[in-house]
From TrEMBL:
PANTHER family (UniProt xref): MULTI-COPPER OXIDASE
Identification of the protein by name: Copper-containing nitrite reductase
InterPro entries: Cu-oxidase-like_N, Cu-oxidase_2nd, Cu-oxidase_fam, Cupredoxin, NO2-reductase_Cu
Domain of life: Bacteria
Cofactor: FAD; Cu(+); Cu(2+)
Subcellular location: Periplasm
Catalyzed reactions: nitric oxide + Fe(III)-[cytochrome c] + H2O = Fe(II)-[cytochrome c] + nitrite + 2 H(+)
Alphabetical list of Pfam families matching this protein: Cu-oxidase, Cu-oxidase_3
Positions of the Plastocyanin-like domain: 109-224, 234-321
Similarity section: Belongs to the multicopper oxidase family.
Amino acid sequence: MNKRKIVKRLIYFGLPLTLVVLVGAVIVTYFWQMRLQKPEEINMAYHQMTAGMSSMINMTDMDGKEHMGDMEHMGGMGNPSSEEGAVSCSSITTPESSAPIRKFDLTAARTTLKLDNGKTVDAWTFNGISPGPELRVTEGDQIVVTLHNKDIEDGVTIHWHGITVPCSQDGIAGVTQDAVPPGEQFTYTFIATTPGTYWYHSHQMSSIQVSKGLLGALIIEPKNGSESGTSTSEATALYQQLGSSMLVNGSERGRTIPAKPGEQVRLRLINSGNETMEFGVDGAPFRVLAMDGHDLHEPGLLERTIVPIGAGQRYDLLIQVPGAGKVVVSSPSAKGLPITIGSGNQP
Ligand SMILES: [Cu+2]
């Protein structure tokens, strides 16, 4: 074979082969990563807490499926190890307190929901609705929530997304507690320490149970009047994927917030889904007052700025309704679900 032939063969066979191997390697690596992040169902209803390390891995896996890299879930990291000197998660509870008590009951049940576009959906709900009731408390309150499981076979828990609570109250099935089986109940007690926008959801096979409807908003109002950036009114917009439907506050039609010209509206946006949602605000400049329950320091006025809200994240926007015209907050990830503030002309 002469040199030219060898070069030709290399070009005709060698190059495509190298390309195929490279592309193959990329695809294999991608799916391997996906596999690591998205385990199949983990039914941890009767999983016993054994080794701290395995619990940590399980926790990461479960949450990796729902909202990856969310450090807020690390709040519940317990060390249920049998090593000497180790403290069990179940022993870390809320200390006795004289704080005002706010009691709630949440019952998880299979429900047929009728959406506002006429569609019916088989959902799993808290108190018959999805999202479940908005829990609204004041900073410093002692929240006492009794979770009842009516008929969710795999069991349920409630995780308080973004709120720092004692280990035993964190609601991570198989890590901080066993899932609550049908017919049973569990009471969560914790102090609402930091004002802000939060949400709660079942953390037993959470990616399935959240998309079935087991979630709701939790708002902690500041003790001494308004939060930073004084707003005159406020509203919550919780976006969720319920089966194949995208909803805001349970609606398939968006929502309208009545507001007068000049009014300052605090809009609490919650993305309970698996993917980042990008929001735009049309009709007025705005400020980002808080992210994930943390106030921003002297937030500047923004205009024509996209607000990317990651999976599980919350953004509190402050929007001043203009003298004439309304403000529309919308996301391409939630087409047909705009938040309209005020009643003037379209922006
Ligand atoms: Cu969460």
